[in-house]
Amino acid sequence: MNNSEKLHNVFAQSLNIGLDKVTDELTYNTIPEWDSVAHMALVAEIENAFEIMMDTDDIVDMSSVGKAKEILAKYNVTF
Questions:
Q1: In this structure, are residues 65 and 8 in contact, taking their beta carbons and an 8 Å threshold?
Q2: What contacts 51, CB < 8 A, 6 or more positions away?
Q3: In-domain check, residue 79
Q4: Is residue 78 part of a domain?
């Protein structure tokens, strides 16, 4: 499994949505499943899956799947 697949799986499992709904364009608060509480659970799962600790600014800025990839790149995760 590559990092993109891993990230998509984390989103699907954390938000309890189908993998088919996880695209780079999926954005925070555009689906009922991705609210502020789910966002924090999602962050915890991403940190666990990629063995990183995100800065607070990055957690706040993570507004889409595509943006999550940009942020993870800062932590040397390649896509």
A1: yes
A2: none
A3: no
A4: no
